[in-house]
Design a protein that fits this description.
Blueprint (H helix, E strand, L loop, with lengths): L6 H9 L2 H17 L8 E5 L5 E5 L3 E5 L5 E5 H16 L5 H17 L5 H8 L1
């Protein structure tokens, strides 16, 4: 977990000004689209050993209905990973350094997710 006093530094180093202007709002938007249970709130920031990053809401569980038709329940951690994977994927289709960063973050997070306890649900929701 990223300490509260390091959140701005970590996200600025990874994404620059694009984090508060594009990425974070897009992740929140994806969360709204994926679950009616999501209603905002505090999100934890997680910095991964492989250089990846994701956010997860400070909640319990979410009922998820993904864009591909998958429906089920996820922990807040799995839900955050799912929302971030959707956001990274969508934003990677732009142009420039930010799009490249999102593509790279997608692959780093997906690699990490493969060892997650809810990997099957995350894959089902994102594939």
């Amino acid at each position: 977990l990223v300490a509260d006093d390091q959140r701005t530094n970590v996200t600025a180093d990874l994404f620059g000004v694009y984090f508060p202007l594009q990425l974070e709002p897009f992740i929140f938007s994806m969360a709204n689209r994926l679950s009616e249970d999501y209603g905002g709130g505090y999100w934890h920031f997680v910095s991964l050993g492989n250089g990846g990053f994701y956010m997860a809401p400070d909640s319990d569980r979410f009922q998820v209905a993904s864009e591909n038709g998958w429906e089920g329940f996820m922990s807040a951690d799995a839900f955050g990973i799912t929302a971030c994977l959707y956001a990274y994927s969508n934003l990677s289709f732009g142009s420039g350094q930010f799009a490249e960063t999102c593509a790279n973050q997608y692959h780093l997070l997906r690699d990490y997710m493969m060892d997650h306890a809810e990997a099957r649900a995350i894959l089902a929701a994102t594939d």
